[in-house]
Every structure is written in structure tokens, then in C-alpha cells.
Design goal:
The chain is built from 14 helices and no strands. By secondary structure, it is mainly alpha-helical.
Length: 280
Amino acid sequence: MKNKTSGVKNAFWFSLLLLLSFIFLFPIYLVVMNSFKSKFNIVGTPFRFPDSETFVGLENYINGIKSAGIFEAFLRTLVITVGSVAAIVIFTSMAAWYIVRVKSRFNKAVYYLFLFSMIVPFQMVMFTMTAVCIKLGLNSVLGIIPVYLGFGAGLSVFMFSGFIKSMPREIEEAAMIDGCGPVKAFFAVVFPILKPTAITVAILNAMWIWNDFLLPYLLLGTTDKTLSVAIQITMQGAYGSIDWGGFMAMLVLAIIPIIIFYLICQKYIIKGVIDGAVKG
């Protein structure tokens, strides 16, 4: 009887997860499918699979690449994403290590400020933040990296702090007895141990930064377009007309790099989230 109940529960959860997978994957399927159809067929029959009448081959991809300036936008997005993720991983791990290891009221207050930043909606501060960033000269491809560091610091510090709390202090003390200073002890001993959480933080922030539209649009505008901004701006023609075929094709090309990155590193996500959130 117990085995039968367990089997029913497993079948229920499997069916539920299968349904959720279908719900999440169906929009991606629609985008990929419609990227091989003409503009009018996408609007008229969006759920129809491409056939001999509607299939246009790689025409949407070729037209989209020519009109979107996708290579320049891709390079800008790559520089911003890699630079921002590297800054977030390095600086927030160091900040979390200091907060956890050096006990003080100031550090405790700073930690709670990091946590508080996680619940503040971006829309609440975006206008004042944009004005301040422009005055500070941060409205450039490299200048936007510190801005992403600020927005990504809350969750990252929280995850790193949770993992560091579970680490025995004796490892660091042994390194310092051997002649390592604080900086060398961190990068030679502590940081390699943080690898699962560091990769998780990198994946979560990379997916957010790569796909972000609003912040690059506010700070960089239409001069230094990122991938998401370039697709949105250049695929929209005069009088509100939209090249839906090119739009779908460019969306497919935009999500491929981040999907590959996720698939390579996804085995670390669950471990990193558990170590960073539960143990703390």
C-alpha cells in the first residue's frame, strides 16, 4: 500500500513538472518556429508550423543581421556582461568574507543594507539613478559596469555570506600562519573553495545582464546599443510596423549564447544556491 501511494505521488509530481516544462518551453518553441516564417504568416497564423507556403529559410536571420547591427551590439553586450559578472563575483565575495569574518555592528548594518537592496524595485530608483550616473559619466559601455555591480551586489553578498559561514576559520588561520596576508589568503585559499557559489552567482547575474533592456536603454540610449536594445529599436519600422520575422530570428540568436553558458555551468546552480542560502 505504501509503495502504491509513493508511486502515485511520484506520478503526480512528474506530471506537474512535465506540464510546467511545457508551459515554460512553449514560448521558446513559438519564437524558434516563427523565425522561419514570413512576417504576414507570423501575424496571421502564429501557431502554424512552417510548411512549403510559409517557410522562408534563413531569410529572416540574414535580414535581421544586416539591419540590426547585431555584431557591434553583441560585442558591447559581451563586454558589459563579462566585465559586470567578473566585478560582481570578485568584489561581492571579498565583501561577504570581510562581513562574516570581522564581527562588528557596522558590518552587520552593511550586511542588512545589502539585503534591503534586494527588495527595492529598480523602477523605484531608475530616474534618480539615471540622472546621477549621467553626472558621474557612467553612461558608457565601461561606465555601466559599476552600476550593474551595485544592483547585483545584494543577492551575491547574501549567497557568498551563507557559504562562508559554513567554512571553518582554521583553514584561513593556517594560511596566515604560513605567511599569507589577508589578500593572498583570500585568493589562494578562500576563493577556490567558493567555486560552486561563485559559478552560481556568475550564471544568475550573466542571464540577467545579458537579457537586460531597461538599464542599458536608460544609460546608453540608442548610440551604444546592447543586443536587446538593438533588436527592439531596429526591428521596428516607420508608423509602428514591426519586422516580426527578423525580430524572432534575432531573439533566437540572442538567447543562444546564454543558453550554452547555462548548460555548461548548470550543474553548479543547485549546489551553489543550497550552500549559499541554506547553510547561512
